[in-house]
Design a protein that fits this description.
This protein is mainly alpha-helical. It has a single domain, classed as Farnesyl Diphosphate Synthase, CATH 1.10.600. Helix content is 77%, strand content 0%. It has 15 helices and no strands.
């Protein structure tokens, strides 16, 4: 005859409750750390470091401190941009904005320290590297500050002008990402560096407009002319298809001409395929913030492929 199951003892129940509470606290702690990593723009600094490492391998340059300098610059500029746009970002990214508001003083100090350290380290790379570290700050000031009305224009900032806003961001960051490791390595600019620069510029433009899909309502409210705000998400998707194909053409031209090796072209093509998949998802998945984050990470697959190639060969 089967015996009845014995009820759990009080100590067992308490132990289960304690374990469940610990797991809940652990998940909350992990989520808190992740949010700080993302909201503070530290993840963008890490991505910039990875991108400079990719360029270093693509151009067969010696390893230098260029990745660290690029990471410091990225962290500083994005922190200051988020501090400057608190009011408009409240609509597009309320949780991130609340975090930035809460720690504004700390973030401002960290941003200033990071930029100062980046410029100081750049001195070790020579005049060219030093000049490159000044570009993000100069571009950000001209991009985000309202100086254009003094020229008699209707637009208050370069950030408000269609195409120019995203194009300026793409060019400025690609100049730093591609040419900073060249400067630190004291290498000459050659055709491979130009091809890589063009590829990164076009791909970064696509990244920027993907993020603008997330910000579409806020941009329309404050009069920032981005592709999604002006032509809608569906039309933006088709435009970005074309721009992504343009990046593929640059990559193919580099490979066919022998400027880029086949293995390097393949690594970058993996990144481009990931970017195209995200573009395809615009307006079809109700997760614009996630898509913007994934778009910023699309160079990471190229880093993985290059690492595997180095380990295998």
């Amino acid at each position: 005859m089967a015996t009845k199951p014995q009820p759990q003892s009080e100590s067992s129940i308490k132990r289960l409750d304690t374990n469940s509470t610990k797991q809940t606290h652990f998940r909350k702690r992990i989520r808190s750390v992740w949010n700080r990593f993302v909201y503070s723009s530290a993840y963008l600094a890490l991505i910039a470091m990875v991108e400079v490492s990719i360029v270093t391998e693509l151009l067969s340059l010696q390893q230098t401190i260029a990745p660290a300098v690029a990471g410091l610059l990225t962290f500083s500029v994005y922190i200051n941009d988020r501090l400057a746009d608190l009011e408009s970002d409240m609509v597009a990214a309320p949780q991130r904005t609340a975090f930035v508001q809460r720690y504004a003083g700390v973030l401002y100090s960290l941003g200033a320290l990071a930029y100062g350290l980046a410029v100081a380290l750049a001195v070790l790379g020579g005049p060219f590297a030093f000049g490159l570290t000044l570009i993000p700050g100069i571009v950000w000031l001209s991009y985000a500050q309202e100086w254009m009305p003094s020229l008699g224009t209707e637009a208050g900032r370069l950030k408000d002008i269609l195409i120019i806003n995203s194009g300026l961001v793409a060019v400025a960051w690609s100049v730093v990402i591609v040419f900073l490791p060249v400067a630190f390595a004291r290498a000459a600019l050659d055709s491979s560096a130009i091809i890589v620069f063009l590829f990164f510029t076009v791909a970064t433009f696509v990244n920027t407009e993907i993020a603008n899909v997330r910000d579409i309502d806020a941009d329309r409210d404050i009069g920032v002319a981005t592709l999604p705000a002006m032509v809608g998400v569906a039309q933006t998707r088709w435009i970005l298809y074309g721009v992504t194909v343009g990046a593929g053409v640059i990559l193919a031209a580099g490979a066919i001409s022998g400027i880029l090796s086949t293995s390097h072209a393949w690594a970058l093509s993996v990144s481009l395929i990931c970017l195209a998949a995200i573009v395809c998802s615009l307006g079809r998945l109700d997760s614009d913030g996630t898509l913007a984050f994934l778009a910023e990470c699309t160079r990471l697959p190229a880093f993985v492929v290059l690492t595997i190639q180095l380990l295998a060969f």
